[in-house]
Structures are given as structure tokens and as C-alpha cells.
Design brief:
By secondary structure, the protein is mostly helical. The protein has 3 domains: 129 residues; 63 residues; 44 residues, no CATH class. The protein contains 6 helices and 4 strands; from the N terminus they run αααααββββα. The strands form 2 sheets. The chain has a two-stranded antiparallel sheet with strand order 1-2. Helix 1 runs antiparallel to helix 2 and helix 4 packs antiparallel against helix 5.
């Protein structure tokens, strides 16, 4: 018993040692990444600041030297040459400055990429040392269901078996429809086929397809033509045929709730009296 307790204590300490070790490593790596990010931003800001100063002060000095050359020599070619040389010198300094800061930026980016790769590698080592992937997969598997207390594989097997049974039932029903279609009219066979397809859609959609509320095309009973109009089955609707102008109304109210005509009421009263 004492050996087991000692082993448990040692095991707990070793796990804590692993967590502490990776905590220190990740803290150091993330601090390095943060500092390199700051250096990279500061490098870009300093470059922009120096470029701005060089453009302003360099142009001012070039114009000043050109004016001094013209004042001393009273010659436009000399002043123009001074201006040209000054502009070339300013552009050269600007290019040299950009090259220096680009070199510094490239070195910072290389160090930053290495630090990020080290950070990712340290995380992967931590996941392997703590069996993260196995633990995560077990938690995901055994925390399924509405209460998160069921086995996902069992639920999946039950769902697949249920879908298989439903498809087998539909296959038998289709075979029965094919056998019984010879003794029925075309309209009856079509209605039964449509109902069978509705059941197939219901199974394939996971049971969320309301069969009684699916769309059906409207055919005018007067001229027998369709206009591409669809209505929701088992609902109230009014349709005016664009071909013959006939008006059709479909009411789903039960007969017991429909209003009775005055003549019928009068007959009922007379009959009851």
C-alpha cells in the first residue's frame, strides 16, 4: 500500500513537472514572439520617420545649395548641376536607408518565424506528453447525446440501423407498388408513387421533411393546363387559371365548421317543428 501511494505521489509530481516545464518554455517563447513583433513594428515606424525627414530636409538643403551656387557663380548651369547632384544624393541616401532597414526587417522576420515554429513544436510536444489527442477523442466520444452522457459510436450505430430499416421498408413498398400498378388507373398509380417519393425524401432528409406540407403543382380542372404555379398541400388557396380564367378555391375547413345557408336552416327549423 505504501509503495502504491508513493508511486501515485511520484506520478503526480512527474505530471506536474511536465506541466511546469512546458509552461516555462511556452512563456519564454511567447515573450520572444511578442518582443520580435514589437521590434518589427518599430523598425517600420523608424524607417518611415527617417524617410519623411530625409525628403523634407534633403530637398530643403538641395534647394539651398542650388541658390548658394547661383549666388556665388551667377550661372544657371552651375545652379542646375548643383540641384541635380543634390537630388541624386538625396535619392541615393534614401535608397541606402531603405536597404539597411529592409536588411534589419528580414533578420527580424527570420527570427520571428523560428520562434513561431518553436512555439508550435512546443505545443505539439505538450499535447503528446499529456495524451491530448487521445483524451480529446475520448471526451468527444463519450459526451454525445442531448445530455452529453452517451457513446457517440453507439448512437451512430443505432441511427444507421434505423435508416437501414427504413430504406429496406421503402424498397419493399416500391416492389409492392410495381406489382399492384397493373390493376390501377394512371392517376391512382401516380398518387401512390408521389407518396412513396415523399417518404423517400423524408428518410433522406433525416425526418425533417414534412410530407403533408410539400409543394404540389396546380392543374386547372376546367382546361387541364398548368401555369407553373405551386401550392402547399393541405392548405387554403385560391387559384385563377391564366389560360381559361376559371377561378378555383381550395378550403381545408371541416364540414362541421362551415356556415350553413339560410334556406337549409329554415328547412331544419320547419322539419323540427
Amino acid at each position: 500500500m505504501m509503495l502504491k501511494a508513493l508511486g501515485g505521489l511520484l506520478g503526480g509530481r512527474s505530471k506536474e513537472h511536465v506541466i511546469d516545464k512546458y509552461t516555462r518554455d511556452l512563456t519564454a517563447v511567447t515573450f520572444t514572439i511578442h518582443e520580435l513583433d514589437k521590434r518589427l513594428k518599430r523598425n517600420d515606424e523608424v524607417l518611415m520617420r527617417w524617410q519623411h525627414r530625409l525628403n523634407i530636409y534633403g530637398t530643403t538643403l538641395v534647394v539651398l545649395f542650388a541658390a548658394m551656387a547661383y549666388s556665388n557663380y551667377r550661372s544657371l548651369p552651375v545652379a542646375g548641376l548643383t540641384l541635380l547632384l543634390g537630388l541624386l544624393a538625396t535619392l541615393g541616401l534614401s535608397r541606402l536607408l531603405r536597404k539597411v532597414f529592409e536588411y534589419q526587417r528580414r533578420n527580424i522576420v527570420i527570427k520571428l518565424d523560428k520562434a513561431r515554429a518553436q512555439h508550435q513544436g512546443t505545443l505539439e510536444d505538450l499535447k503528446k506528453a499529456t495524451n491530448f489527442y487521445s483524451t480529446h477523442s475520448l471526451i468527444q466520444r463519450f459526451s454525445s447525446g442531448p445530455l452529453q452522457s452517451e457513446d457517440a459510436s453507439t448512437l451512430m450505430d443505432e441511427e444507421l440501423k434505423s435508416k437501414y430499416d427504413e430504406l429496406q421498408s421503402l424498397q419493399k413498398e416500391l416492389a409492392q407498388l410495381r406489382g399492384d400498378s397493373s390493376g390501377k388507373s394512371t392517376n391512382e398509380a401516380r398518387e401512390e408513387t408521389d407518396r412513396w417519393f415523399d417518404k423517400v425524401l423524408d428518410v433522406l432528409s433525416g425526418g425533417g421533411f414534412a410530407i403533408e406540407n410539400n409543394l404540389v403543382p396546380v392543374t386547372c380542372p376546367n382546361c387541364g393546363k398548368t401555369s407553373g404555379c405551386y401550392v402547399v398541400r393541405n392548405t387554403d388557396w385560391t387559384y385563377v387559371c391564366p389560360h381559361c380564367g376559371e377561378r378555383h378555391t381550395n378550403s381545408m375547413l371541416p364540414e362541421s365548421t362551415t356556415s350553413r345557408s339560410p334556406s337549409t336552416d329554415g328547412k331544419d327549423k320547419n322539419s323540427t317543428t
